[in-house]
Design goal:
Length: about 450
Amino acid sequence: MAKYQLRQTMLDILIRIEKDKGFSNLLLNHELQQTDFNEKDKRLLTEVIYGTVQNQITIDYYLAQFMKNKKKLDIWVKQLLRMSVYQMVYLEKIPDHAIVHESVEIAKIRGHKGTASFVNGILRSMQRKGVPDLSLIANPIERISIETSHPLWLVERWAEMYGIEKTDAMCHENIKHFPMSIRIQPMKTTRASVMMQLENEGFEVEPSSFSSQGILIKKGNIFQTTLLQDGFVTVQDQSSMLTAESLQLEPGMKVLDTCSAPGGKATHIAELMTDQGDIHACDLHQKKVKLIEEKAAILDLHAISAFQGDARKLDEKYEEASFDRILIDAPCSGLGVINGKPEIKYEKQPSDIERLASIQQDIIETAASLLKPGGLLIYSTCTVDKMENNQVVQTFLENHPAFSIDLTFKNELSESLKQAPGWSAEGLQLFPQDFQTDGFFLTRIKRDT
Ligand SMILES: C[S@@+](CC[C@H](N)C(=O)[O-])C[C@H]1O[C@@H](n2cnc3c(N)ncnc32)[C@H](O)[C@@H]1O
């Protein structure tokens, strides 16, 4: 193995995340499959990559205190400094002198003596002087932004929409470690037997209160079992399980899933219909249609037919009032999944939210016409933003008196969800801090006539 291989790999991944705007989880999974690092090193690699990206604004604030000359750094130098600071400030297990030594050696290999001494100077002064106390930042918006590494515009936007306290809690939750959740395939196994198997293998698990198929994994790595590849379980955030759970599905129904890839919710729909019925799963991108098919195949589900299509034009493919149930799990800014995909918070701009809200509006306008009278439609997103959630739904209802919000789905949920703080006249906004799930919005709409 080449010298400093682990840190060099960390650095290469961080450079790619910044250059290619790649998703850290995808790049990391790919890398972990390629390398022959031992489990301990793989864990450290994961921790440093996520931690460095997750805390980037905080780290840059720390670094700025030690860089007199504000010259623009090469990407690799910037990322090397960031990952070194992450390890020095956030990880206790590695001594600072070892981190500084390795970083300086890597700087010598990748750059020249001058770069190495620049890196050495900054890291040694930080080691000597320590980092500034962020709680002393007087402006609360700025403090939250720097403490939790969320861009200022986003903190301002959330504070305006949800108040400063909720925003503070949400931003802090977004940088914590969340337990993962899985959904069992109930036609192949039971929740009790999967939980028992996992416990026997040393996992810590808990039943989910969101779905009778859900299991929370508090400790253990599900990817090291054969349960996923054998199609007994699939990974799904608990919040997402609420969509199919709230559709009042029955075997034999005709269902449309307008934005379906990679098929997490379509397969849940099929399971709740005991794989009997007609599930039309649409996605805009042909290559993603394959993902839906693969997920259905692995879970042994056959009632789903996946196809490429634009949800804004589905009225050209189907007659009005064709479906008993419709799910619109709309493309969105993803500001609810910052915890697992931290780069989202740096990449999204207010203009993206406006653009997406307009697409969401077009999708709901078209898809709703395909719902039968008496039928139910779920509109959901994995974002926390009123423009993409409450406003899209409100505008739709204003223009379509034949539809109304059916908040009775609240009564079908668990006691804890009934008490969720995010209920409004438009539906349920889950905040990450409420149940340690993705930030997620859903509502149920009924076609009355
Ligand atoms: C939030 S994801 C869906 C996740 C999926 N429902 C699941 O549970 O696995 C949104 C999906 O909408 C797709 N999409 C974006 N614009 C679309 C459009 N105009 N019509 C149909 N699908 C679209 C994206 O390709 C993406 O796969």
